[in-house]
Amino acid sequence: MLIVQKYGGTSVANTERIKAVARRVVRTADEGHRVVVVVSAMAGETDNLIRLAHEVSPNPGEREMDLLLSSGERVTTALTAMAVQALGKKAIALTGRQMGIITEPVHTKARIERIEADRAKRALDEGYIVVVAGFQGITESDEVTTLGRGGSDLTAVAIAAALKADLCEIYTDVDGVYTTDPNIVPEARKLDKISYEEMLELASLGAKVLQTRSVEFAMKYNVPVVVRSSFNDNPGTLVTKEDKEMEKVVVSGVAYDKNQSKITIKAVPDRPGIAARLFKAIADANIVVDMIVQNVSSDGRATDISFTVAKTDSNKALSITEAIARELGASGVDLREDIAKVSIVGVGMRTHSGVAAKMFETLARHGINIMAISTSEIKVSCLIEAKYTELAVRVLHDAFELAKAEGEK
Amino acid sequence: MLIVQKYGGTSVANTERIKAVARRVVRTADEGHRVVVVVSAMAGETDNLIRLAHEVSPNPGEREMDLLLSSGERVTTALTAMAVQALGKKAIALTGRQMGIITEPVHTKARIERIEADRAKRALDEGYIVVVAGFQGITESDEVTTLGRGGSDLTAVAIAAALKADLCEIYTDVDGVYTTDPNIVPEARKLDKISYEEMLELASLGAKVLQTRSVEFAMKYNVPVVVRSSFNDNPGTLVTKEDKEMEKVVVSGVAYDKNQSKITIKAVPDRPGIAARLFKAIADANIVVDMIVQNVSSDGRATDISFTVAKTDSNKALSITEAIARELGASGVDLREDIAKVSIVGVGMRTHSGVAAKMFETLARHGINIMAISTSEIKVSCLIEAKYTELAVRVLHDAFELAKAEGEK
Lengths: 409, 409
Known about the structure:
2 copies of one chain form a homodimer. By secondary structure, chain A is an alpha/beta fold. The first copy, chain A, has 12 helices and 20 strands. In chain A, 47% of the residues are buried. The model of chain A has no long low-confidence stretch (mean pLDDT 92). Chains A and B meet through α1, α2 and α3 of A and α1, α2 and α3 of B.
């Protein structure tokens, strides 16, 4: 098999751990597999570099920021290749450029356009273990780019797709994907298998195991991904195409997200085009809106519009909304940061009814008020007061019997 | 003017110092000059990376070592460009590759083959301050290389030559080139001007201000180099072509080198080809021999051969010499590490006689025994016991009246 293994920052946090990574890589090669290894920067290093940048400039240029940040993966790539060589195997370290990772000409969050993997293929054919710097690429015009937070996952999945790898293993500091956050629900169960679609909902909802874009990429190119721990030999969670077996599971997991804010524009005169005007301005500022609720007032002449954005965007979104509120003659704008989104996810919802109702009923039974609801085919999300987050996660996990494996229910 | 400024590791040791560098760069630009800035890695960073490499591998691969080490300059280059931008100037950071520094395909100590400076020229024409990563280059086949210790000096001088710069300023933590080590002789005087040839002798003799290869390069392409401190505004020392004025100065400086060992092969039968056999074997091991002395024994049938090598090479040189001693039937091999080389340097020696005699006499008067002598047109070196080094430097500095400027003598 051709296996791509990605090791995150905690897995290469120091030279002892890098040597442990090398041993695992060599073990995989000794089992007869060809191996490509993708590494992140040492845990903390990227934050350290960002801190240095802010010490020299209040507003560091993005082009130079990419050059700066790309150095972190360069270090771990070289060290990991050296550690593999020290175990007697042929290994070659490749930067994003040497791996042929061509991105669009955008800094700090570039998308991969294509991978020119000839050099890596040649090295694999010559018996090398190929160690690649995650998170980075290069544009057609020779500029260094980075792929944004969690970008090393994307590097690994994209390389797996380009090389038609049999498996992409994402090594991290957790054993896999859980039915919910084990810090909140100790009985949370590790899933053996999950569909791309579910993983996508869980990832974008705040289960930080796999970067969202990398799951989309894996789904698009049908790359089987295993999420597992680099600190033990547990089998991890396979993220793959939806199959019959998965459809039997109504709810696979409960996710939560405390990183959102709710903005409400109050008593806007209810005319056509109001919402369009508002959300176009927000979108133009590159702010992603998640949930939207519109309540028409009792007399039908004015309306409240609420929406949620990432907390990091809330000040920017607030000032845009305030400007538009003045323009439209709304009575005011309100920002709430003490909110959270709780979601249940499962491909089985497509064929099972009554799931949303059970969720609402469970929250209501515990006195948790729902401020907004959004749904997709495989997900139901409720906006609640932040202080109820843990309670909501626990009671939902319990209501859908997630601690039990399918056979036990 | 077009000025290349190189800042060493202590000048960019932290973000405060990088901001000070940025202010100096901007001041130079504000004086109407076009500026290219070459930076080293932060002081200590290269050693830190080497330590990490040795933690993961007893014998790290050179290709991966170059990839690893090149990250250090990448960081300071990006930070320096950001700091210049923060002062309101256009600045662009270029890696060795982006600067077009093409080297031979040799790792850890590559020679620069040529510089494809089109991109840098374009940036300068567009009004950018160009910040370049020192110490690194790239081969024709896209491999990252480094230029060896002190390689950032070479980067700066080579860029100055390629861009036909008017001046190359090497900023370091000392004020310039002194008549000798001020730690040994407090009255040591800073030289205003020194010839390339003298600088070369001083540098290779252990005055660590400028890397030897960069002086050779500057001499070859006639690049005027100024060595000065980044911590004050003192004018520094100009390293330039020899001129009439310099020839008046008989001795410009006294240098010493404690990093050599002396190996003696004793009572070798005195046959033709013995020395050739020995020194070919040493050269084949890539060991540079400095001084050589051969004493024919009184009966004329056996000879002692002594030579000096860098201390780092002494074990390797010793075992080669021992093998050859057995082969040739010599009586034994002796290693002495408690030796030092003291030298006087000056272009004026070419036209003045009696300089060497005065040196020998001065050392003799202070009871310092000379073990070996080597001379060039502009230098006389004596091998002495290491414990006399400071004394020898002081008495020679005094004998040649180096504390006084030329006019005062």
